[in-house]
Amino acid sequence: MFNDHFEVKKGSEIMPTKHSLILLAGAPGTGKGYTANIIRQALPNLTYAPLDMYKEHIYDEIGFDNVEQKDALDEEARQRYYRAIDIMMANGKNILGDYPFSYKQKPYLTKAAAAHDYNVITVRLEAPAQVLYDRQRARDKEEPRHLGI
Questions:
Q1: Which structural domains are found in the chain, ordered by start?
Q2: pLDDT averages per 10-residue partition of the chain, 149 residues
Q3: What does the radius of gyration of the chain's CA atoms come to, in whole angstroms?
Q4: Cα separation, 149 vs 142, whole angstroms
């Protein structure tokens, strides 16, 4: 499967064979960020577009005081994410994104990929519930994270 989507260029550079959107799917704590860093090292020409980046930006830009306001900002962040993906695809960028809530994102991303003739590769990450709980608890205690995420 790897050879269907990528080729090794001179100097061991790995490049997609056609425009690609690589999506990392999985619940919080499955290692999407960690996996993204590994992929970005192997494929440095990818444009990295995680949904959380759009959420953090809009939380800082507008702010929220309650769950309803946060939900509205989350929807706006998703719309900004979709517009950015569309612009990146229109410009022929190879994209690495995440796919934390596929039921919300799949219709738009499927349509955009078809419109721009993009190959979509989804990498699904999973872990046992206890492992996810332990990772999230440790992350919440140790890593500086945006308060809205």
A1: 2-142 (3.40.50.300)
A2: 48 64 90 92 92 93 95 95 96 90 84 94 92 87 68
A3: 16
A4: 15
The 3-state secondary structure of the chain reads: CHHHHEEEEHHHEEEECCCEEEEEECCCCCCHHHHHHHHHHHCCCCEEECHHHHHHHHHHHHCCCCHHHHHHHHHHHHHHHHHHHHHHHHCCCCEEEECCCHHHHHHHHHHHHHHCCCEEEEEECCCCHHHHHHHHHHHHHHCCCCCCC
**Alpha carbons 15 and 117: distance in angstroms, whole number:** 17
pLDDT at 18: 80
